[in-house]
Give the backbone structure.
Amino acid sequence: MASLGPILQFLGNQNHTWGVSLLLTTAPGEAPPMLQLSAPAQASPPVSCPIPGHTGTAWRIDIAVPQAANDLAIDYKINGTANRFHVPPRDSSPNMGYVSCNGFSDPRVKKSLKEPQALWSRLGRLHRQIDRVDSTAFGPLHLLLMGGDQIYSDDLDRHPGTARLDRTALVATHRRPFTASMHSALQAHYARLYIDHWIKANRRPCSLASPP
């Protein structure tokens, strides 16, 4: 199984402390992740759990950053790979970007475009303050709100372990027991969907992650 991450999630702002959760996976036999953080950020010890239906391990590391009077650029390294995220000044509103579905219902349309990820590239340039909107800079972005479908699961009713959830027998299906084997199959299926899709997202050159 390929390694995934790091993926950051906003945990909220408590008493002027910006909370971030870092998620990543490791393949079987790999050592626990090593995280290095720039001040004033502090990290909790890594917490691990198995990945349903897979042999790898998922890791979560919570990070707390006391806000300052100015924007903070927090540099961090995971197993030697450097990256950065930004924390807004104390008592200020964060700069936010919003994204939704990409709009490609037909793969042929996506293939016909010279730059199918043009809006991601634009958002990345706004984050790095390369681009502006009406001469106004909006970066760096502190939060990215994601609406719409994150993961398409249209093939769920064709998965071998969940074939009994056939849409064509919807009423009869609702009257059948949801077995432990079906539950395990669903967990494994969704784990694979998220891992595969987020690995692809992390490989995009227009990621909002900022190298230090």
Remarks:
- DSSP finds four helices and ten strands in the chain.
- The first helix runs from residue 107 to 112.
- The two ends are 28 Å apart (CA to CA).
